[in-house]
Here is the input.
Amino acid sequence: MKLRAAGRLAAALTFLAAGLAADETEHTETDSVDDARMEQWLVHPQRTAQAARTATPPTIDGNVEVAEWQAAPVQRGFTQDDPKHGEPASEETTFQILYDDEALYIAAICYDSQPDSVNAVLSRRDDWRERDLIEFNLDPHHDHQTGMLFMVGPSGWIRDAIIFNDDNDDQTWDGVWEARTTLRPDGWSVEIRIPYHVLRFGEKPVYTWGLNVFRFIARRQEWSHFAFMPRGVNGWVSRFGHLEGIEGIRPERSLEIFPVALGRTTLTRGEDDGGNETDLFGTAGLDVRYGLSSNISLNGTINPDFGQVDADPAVLNLGVFETFFDERRPFFVEGNQVFESPGPEIVGIENPTRLFHSRRIGRQPARFGLPDDSDEVDRPDNTTILGAVKVSGKTESRTAFGVLNAVTGSEYARIDQRITDAQSGVTDTTRRRFRVEPTTNYFVGRVQQDLLTNSTIGAQLTAVNGEGFDPAYVGATDVHVKWWDNAYRVYSRLAVSRAGQDDDRDTGWEGAFYFSKFSGSFGGQAYLDARSRGFEANDLGFMNRNDRTQAGTHIFYKLLEPYWFARHSGFNINIWQHNNFDGDNLARGVNFNMWHELHSYWGFWMGLDRNFDAWDDLATRGGPVMRRPASSRWAMDVWADDRNAISGWYGTNVRWGLGGDDLSTWNGLELELKPASNVEIEVNPSFRYDRNDAQWVENVDSDGDDEDDRYIFGELKSKIFELGIRGTWAFTPFLSTQLFLQPFVTTGDYGRIKELARARSYEFTDYDELAENPDFRRRSLRFNLVMRWEYAPAAPCSSSGSRTGIATSTIPAIPTSSPWPTPAVPSATKGTTSSS
Here is the structure.
């Protein structure tokens, strides 16, 4: 076994080394497009803008024709990125920058020869819609890795984000800054004020910051840059121009306190008697943001309540692994990028490990199992978060760090426990509280050091400690190296875990190595990822399984220039193979994709997959390995021009099995309706039909030795229909109403029930001893209505109403999220919808 694994690793490393050598010897031939891009880069040298000090700060009202702006140099000369790459922008854009001891001030005029055609769509903060806009990107650390973007539309709409690891962004961040706009006879103008405490930089006598400015003209789909960025090259922050002239400032520490008060009324419809139950609830908490220094901040929260956060969508999960849901809670979303490893996007890798998944904090309590001879009545939906604190920043020596600690309280379920009297044999049922979650402390810390021009090395630690269970730890180190103008990247990570309880406590490891080239017309990626049997990251992270190696390649070709048929075109090929440490081949396949975006801005994508015969070591949920027949899949998406009042996309895919009666079809549609400039409606209907030849039902211990020896499957036909409706009505840039509605219906009908005839086969015999009918019906309706008023910058007040209704058949649905913590072989259930 070890020799086979070592042989695969040696072969993969030899392949990567050969690829590196071939790239060195063939650079002139294969990278001719890159050379042309570099020539274009030389035609547009790096840009530098000058800032001027002001004694009188301008009033932020959108009017730039005032005396304060006369002292600031005017910057102009934008270059198109799209559609006419490298040519001068079709409309002139100018901007100016002032500063004083407290803030940076920006003014811009977006001239337009057709001012009546300016797209001034109005929507709530951060909501993306097709509109004219101007975007300012700043790199105050001047580390070529991090920055912030500030985006403004003609209606006063704003959007902001933190940029990290050169070309990633976190759009959940909401900074405290101001912007006002004015429509003019010759276009539109904007004024912006950004306090220094938002930018978080260290103190120096003289500053040079990274800077780039972008403008978008919606009706022409035209993006233009102040500092030109050639197509086909990697990097974002590392390609900024410069902002100079700022000196003699001392950024002050800031303290922001956000008291949180919540009042909630819950109406629960009664059972058949028609009575309703009303629950009145009130709570208070506190959010604090404090600048420990000019470039280090502390965020804290006490008794947070996230009742205003959108609910997760309903899903049907009949598989082995729990469903992954994104984080939505503001405290954990904002600034979360500091805890992310800077690894490249891995194309084709299946479910990469997340060492930190903040949804684990405050999850539904389930640490301790229920006692024997008991039935659960109910349990809380979430674990109470007593408090949390987060410290993050970046030093002048280019060391970034983040620490988060959170404490959750004990939680109890109500159970009905059966107690049998030893003498009389009479069994009584007693309802009582049972602790299912102890007081628990969650910790995550990460430190990352910039190296060379644009590379990093980092380390991370997570820990979960609590009363009544053994602690869980994960530690990791990673290296991310970029060279040749960011064209080539190597990333590696090694993680070690210590987790589990009592006799199952184990130490495990995960190793990953990736090599990629994504610049130019031709490139690709090769990867190798392995997790040992004992590796476990689910206490504070997210992973679907251990005992697996993954290896694969991704090769692409794309056209960087428009041609007669399309604006953009390309294709890629992916090849992969997965094994466990017993040498079983778990997956091997090949995939081909192609895409075209036409000159009309309509486009389409098409893909074809082939998965070959493989082994499935989890299909029997802890039983023997089972064969999985080959299958194929065809898929296609078509999308429309976003500029139209009605736009959207349509997608379809079909998967069919080659060794059984498997068939899966899915059809989805997204319609974007824009009946007015401040109203947007999204309608997303979809329908899925699955015919599964062997859906796991249960395992049976037929001889009473406490070991399952029969593995039961069924031929399942299931259908899912869901309709997502989301509407947004913006009254001003700071006052809006949003509606979300999701009806969800799923049915499952089992035909032949059968058991696996023998291990390592796909052969079955009839089974007629099933205790209950596994068919299921499930309907749910999720409704959420939120009115949001941002009465001060980044200080929202919201009022919300929500409704969740669920109806099931007489066969109860069982949550599919795996028990906590996720076992090595998670259990699955039948007929299930879940939201976590």
